[in-house]
Amino acid sequence: MDPDTLDTIGRYDFEGQVLSPTMTAHPKFDPKTGEMICYGYEVSWLLNPFVWSHLLTVHQAGGDGNDGSRDIVVYTIDASGLKTEECWYKAPFCGIIHDCGVSDNWVVLPMTPLKCDPERLKKGENHWAWDPNEDQWYGLVPRRKGKPEDIRWFRSKNAFQGHTVSCYETPDGEVVFDLTIADGNVFFWWPSVDTPAGTVAKRNKLHNSTTRWIFDPQAPNNSWVDPVEERTEFSGEFSRIDDRFTTYKYNHYWQAIIDGSKPYDFKNADRQPAASSTRWGILPGTTQRPRRFGRVHEPAFIPRAGSKEEGDGYLVALLNHLDVLRNDVCIFDARNIAQGPVAVIHLPFKLRLGLHGNFVEQSEIETWREKRSRELGPVEPAKESLNATDETDESLNISVNGEGGKGANFLLFCV
Ligand SMILES: [Fe+2]
């Protein structure tokens, strides 16, 4: 994607270094090293014509990342765009791994009990099905020099893992992982396999708690874990931190919350007159929220120029006006959101709901552009479609629109 015009250029495979047919929409960036850690799942490389075309320089028919494979691949890309780590692991089943956590030495892969069964695929049924009897799983893999046998799984009671808050290590090497978790199937359009045919899919009434997990990398495989802390007073999602503190112990995060006790406001076409973006620390915590603020999308954090203090900066979020089909861009003082936005940009049109987004400093783009031109040359879009039989590459549309069920392809930032 062109960073100035936002024009789509094409699919990016890191100049042929990343051959996975699927890729998370939630890579993590290590502020200490500048590395990007990312992964794909349902990535049967043995059946993948794209991989084979590179290995054998010919195209072969086969899978394309939609085959129920239990394979997971985890990559590290350095600040120049060079792949430095790649390891392929096996999951106990093909389940959705939507987001991840990254600490100095580990990657946490939360696997939700939404399963793909190759036999069901052959019958033309839903790709994914909720399994109410399956545990939630957490895969822990080393960030460096990982081997397939290194993956360690932890299990807990059935629930639906949402987006990551953050992840870091304690001084004694345990991995702290914070994320929101729903108490049922968020993706109601993929019900369990025993749902009677013809049943109309209905949205589930759910509560999203914010949970803290601690994983001991030395624990035996398949160890049972329970959250060490579970905050249930808000039902929230789309948590964000000050990204400069990824892998660090942190004190602040911001989260969009829903107050399910409030009736739907038909006049203003909004469910929660009081719903808001909020800020609260997990341990210890204070909570703030703007009073009587409308429904907001996922926020993003913008550091204050020159400041290095955690949370010192601005929070930017889209505010919905569903009654008049319009959005505002609202900018808050991130550590004082209770006072309401310090600036509002009135957009004359409506944007999609629930879009993820990131803030990037112009200077970062320019530094990277210069580094590329000096060391590796300009970035190039992938030379061929991921799916040899479909040159339109529908997967690209998924990534443009945010995310699909199992993540999306990267877009190319070309300068
Ligand atoms: Fe997401």
Descriptive overview:
The chain is mainly β. Helix content is 8%, strand content 30%. It has 4 helices and 23 strands. Strands 5, 6, 7, 8, 9, 10 and 14 form a 7-stranded mixed sheet that branches. A 4-stranded antiparallel sheet has the order 1-2-3-4, with no helix packed on it. Strands 11-12-13-15 form a 4-stranded antiparallel sheet, with no helix packed on it. The protein is globular. The termini are close together. It binds fe (ii) ion (FE2). Fe (ii) ion (FE2) is lined by residues 25-26, 98, 163, 356, 403.
Order of helices and strands: EEHEEEEEHEEEEEEEEEEEEEEEEHH
Report the mean per-residue pLDDT as an integer.
82
Helix fraction by DSSP (H/I, runs of at least 4):
under 10%
Q: How is the quaternary structure best described? A: single chain
| Ions and ligands | fe (ii) ion
**Count of distinct strands:** 23
Rg calculated over all Cα atoms = 21 Å
**Beta-sheet strand percentage?**
25-35%
The number of helical runs is 4
Binding site for Fe cation: 26, 98, 163, 356
Organism: Parascedosporium putredinis
Pfam families: RPE65
Cofactor: Fe(2+)
Q: Which descriptors apply to this entry?
A:
single chain, 415 residues, mainly beta, seven-stranded mixed beta sheet, 4 helices, globular, binds fe (ii) ion
Secondary structure: elements and pairs:
Elements (H helix, E strand, L loop, with lengths): L27 E2 L6 E6 L7 H8 L14 E7 L5 E8 L3 E3 L4 E2 L3 E11 L1 H5 L6 E2 L5 E7 L9 E5 L3 E10 L5 E8 L25 E8 L7 E2 L4 E3 L3 E6 L13 E5 L18 E4 L6 E2 L11 E4 L9 E9 L4 E8 L9 E4 L15 H15 L17 H7 L15
Parallel strand pairs: 10-14
Antiparallel strand pairs: 1-2, 2-3, 3-4, 5-7, 6-7, 7-8, 7-9, 9-10, 11-12, 12-13, 13-15, 16-17, 17-18, 18-19, 20-21, 21-22, 22-23
Bound molecules: fe (ii) ion.
